C-alpha cells in the first residue's frame, strides 16, 4: 500500500510560531504502513500465545498500522521527538478506548529501540505484535519507544520515572489526536496505560504523574504485567540490567553517584561502552545472574538485606525518587503476576500491591501458578475484559483484602 503521510497541527504551528511553541503530544508525522487483515493479525500474534501455553484469542477485525512521530519533552524541559507504533482497528465495539502499552527492557541506545525494525521497513518487534493483538480485538493501541530512542546523541534515561511517564502521556495525546483526525467517532473517552516489566514501571509512573502533567488525558486504569515498580528490586532480582540503571542515573543526575565504583571491578572500566553495545539479550549473556558478581560487594549485600539507605544513601535517594505507586490517584489497577516470576518476585510484588492498596487504590491481582515473568499472553483476555468493564462503568474489583501483609 502507498504510504500515506498525514500532516497535522505541528506543521502549521512550526511555520507560524517556530519550533519552540509546539506542544507536547503534537503529531510530527503519521505514516501509514499498511493494513493487516484479520488473518494476518492472527498469523502475527497467535504463535506467541501458543508458545506461552495459552490458546490464541479469536481476532475480531483487520488493523491499520502507522508509525507515529510526536512531540514530547526532554528532562530539561527542551523539545524532544519520540516514535511509536499506532494500531487502529477497522471495526470496533470499543471506539472510544485507547491503550498505551509500554515495552519491557530492550537497551539504552537506538540499536535496541523496540520499534527499530518496523520503522526501518522490517517486521514487527515483540511489542509491536502485542499491540497488534489488542487492536485485533478492537482496541486502538499505541506502543511508544522511550525517550532517547531514535536520537543518536542520547541514551535512554532507563528507569527514570519522569522520563517514562512523559513519553507515555504524550504518546496518548498524539494517538488521541490521530484517532480523532482519522474518525471523530474514535476520539478517546477512556485511555488505559499498560506495561510489561520495565513497562510496568512506566505505567505506574504514568499514573503517578498524569494529573499534574496531562490532566487532559482521560486515564481510566492501569495494567501491569509482571511490573517492576521498585528499582531496588530490579537491581537485586535481575542484576543484568543494574549497570544500565547506574549509567542512566549518572547521566540524569550528574555527580550524585559514581557508577563505576558501584560495579564489580571487572565490569567498571567498560561500563559506558558495554551500555552502548549490548541490548537485552546481550546483557543476559555478558553479565552474571548473581548481583554479587555484577555489583560492588557491599552494594550487592545491601540490596539483599534491604539496607541500601544505610550503606549507599545517595543511590537510595535516587531509587526512592524513581519508585512508583506513590500517589493516591484513585485509578483502578490490575496486576497480572506469575507466582514463579524471577524478575519481579512474588513476595516483592505482594509488597508493591500492598503499597497501592494502602493508598486506597482498588487492585485486581490475578496470580498465575507455574508462571514466570511472562504474563502478557496468559493474562491477555482477562486484561481486555477488565478494561471493557471499566468502560462500561462497572465498579472496579479489588483483591486488597487478600494480599499478604509484609
Question: Topology, please?
Answer:
Layout: E1 4-6, H1 9-17, E2 27-36, H2 38-51, E3 63-73, E4 79-89, E5 97-102, H3 116-119, H4 126-136, E6 140-144, H5 161-182, E7 190-196, H6 198-213, E8 219-225, H7 231-237, H8 242-252, H9 265-268, H10 271-277, H11 280-286, H12 291-294, H13 297-305, H14 308-311, H15 313-321, E9 333-338, H16 346-358, E10 363-364, E11 367-368, H17 380-391
Helix pairs in contact: 2-4, 5-6
Question: Which terms summarize this structure?
Answer:
Rossmann fold; globular; 406 residues; 2 domains; alpha/beta; disordered N terminus
Write up this protein:
Strands 1, 2, 3, 4, 5, 6, 7, 8, 9, 10 and 11 form an eleven-stranded mixed sheet that branches. It is built from 17 helices and eleven strands. 50% of the residues are buried. The protein has two domains: 305 residues, Alpha/Beta hydrolase fold, catalytic domain (Rossmann fold, 3-Layer(aba) Sandwich); 91 residues, no CATH class. The radius of gyration is 20 Å and the shape is globular. β7, α6 and β8 form a beta-alpha-beta unit. The chain has 406 residues and is α/β, with parallel strands linked by helices. The longest helix has 22 residues.
Principal-axis shape: globular
Structural class label: alpha/beta
Question: Helices and strands, in N-to-C order?
Answer: EHEHEEEHHEHEHEHHHHHHHHHEHEEH
CATH topology of the largest domain: Rossmann fold
Describe the largest sheet: 11 strands, mixed
Low-confidence stretches: 1-21
| Radius of gyration, taken over Cα atoms and rounded to an integer in Å | 20 Å
Number of strands: 11
Distance linking N and C termini: 56 Å
For CATH, the homologous superfamily of the largest domain is named as Alpha/Beta hydrolase fold, catalytic domain
Strand content: 15-25%
**CATH C-level label of the largest domain:** Alpha Beta
Averaged pLDDT: 93
The CATH architecture of the largest domain can be named as 3-Layer(aba) Sandwich
Annotation field: number of helices:
17
Amino acid at each position: 500500500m502507498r504510504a500515506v503521510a498525514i500532516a497535522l497541527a505541528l506543521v502549521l504551528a512550526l511555520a507560524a510560531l517556530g519550533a519552540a511553541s509546539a506542544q507536547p503530544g503534537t503529531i510530527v508525522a503519521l505514516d501509514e504502513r499498511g493494513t493487516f487483515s484479520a488473518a494476518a493479525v492472527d498469523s502475527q500474534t497467535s504463535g506467541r500465545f501458543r508458545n506461552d501455553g495459552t490458546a490464541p484469542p479469536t481476532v475480531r477485525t483487520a488493523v491499520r498500522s502507522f508509525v507515529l512521530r510526536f512531540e514530547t519533552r526532554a528532562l530539561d524541559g527542551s523539545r524532544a521527538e519520540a516514535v511509536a507504533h499506532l494500531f487502529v482497528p477497522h471495526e470496533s465495539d470499543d471506539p472510544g478506548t485507547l491503550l498505551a502499552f509500554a515495552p519491557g527492557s530492550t537497551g539504552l541506545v537506538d540499536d535496541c529501540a523496540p520499534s527499530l525494525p518496523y520503522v526501518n521497513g522490517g517486521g514487527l518487534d515483540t511489542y509491536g505484535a502485542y499491540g497488534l493483538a489488542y487492536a485485533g480485538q478492537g482496541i486502538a493501541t499505541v506502543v511508544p519507544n522511550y525517550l532517547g530512542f531514535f536520537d543518536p546523541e542520547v541514551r535512554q534515561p532507563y528507569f527514570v520515572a519522569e522520563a517514562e511517564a512523559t513519553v507515555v502521556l504524550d504518546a496518548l495525546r498524539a494517538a488521541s489526536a490521530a484517532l480523532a483526525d482519522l474518525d471523530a467517532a474514535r476520539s478517546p473517552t477512556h485511555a488505559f496505560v499498560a506495561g510489561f516489566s520495565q513497562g510496568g514501571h512506566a505505567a505506574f509512573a504514568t499514573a503517578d504523574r498524569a494529573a499534574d502533567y496531562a490532566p487532559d488525558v482521560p486515564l481510566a486504569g492501569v495494567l501491569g504485567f509482571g511490573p517492576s515498580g521498585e528499582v531496588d528490586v530490579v537491581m537485586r532480582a535481575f542484576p543484568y540490567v543494574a549497570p544500565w540503571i547506574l549509567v542512566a542515573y549518572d547521566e540524569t543526575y550528574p555527580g550524585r553517584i559514581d557508577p563505576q565504583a558501584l560495579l564489580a571491578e571487572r565490569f567498571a572500566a567498560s561500563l559506558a561502552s558495554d551500555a552502548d553495545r549490548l541490548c537485552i539479550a546481550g546483557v543476559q549473556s555478558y553479565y552474571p545472574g548473581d548481583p554479587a558478581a555484577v555489583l560492588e560487594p557491599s552494594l550487592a549485600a545491601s540490596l539483599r538485606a534491604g539496607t541500601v539507605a544505610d550503606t549507599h544513601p545517595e543511590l537510595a535517594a535516587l531509587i526512592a525518587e524513581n519508585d512508583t505507586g506513590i500517589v493516591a490517584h484513585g485509578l483502578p489497577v490490575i496486576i497480572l503476576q506469575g507466582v514463579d516470576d524471577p524478575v519481579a518476585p512474588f513476595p516483592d510484588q505482594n509488597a508493591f500491591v500492598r503499597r497501592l492498596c494502602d493508598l486506597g487504590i482498588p487492585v485486581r491481582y490475578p496470580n498465575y501458578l507455574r508462571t514466570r515473568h511472562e504474563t502478557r499472553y496468559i493474562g491477555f483476555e482477562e486484561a481486555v475484559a477488565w478494561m471493557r468493564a471499566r468502560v462500561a462503568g462497572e465498579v472496579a474489583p479489588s483483591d486488597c483484602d487478600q494480599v499478604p501483609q509484609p
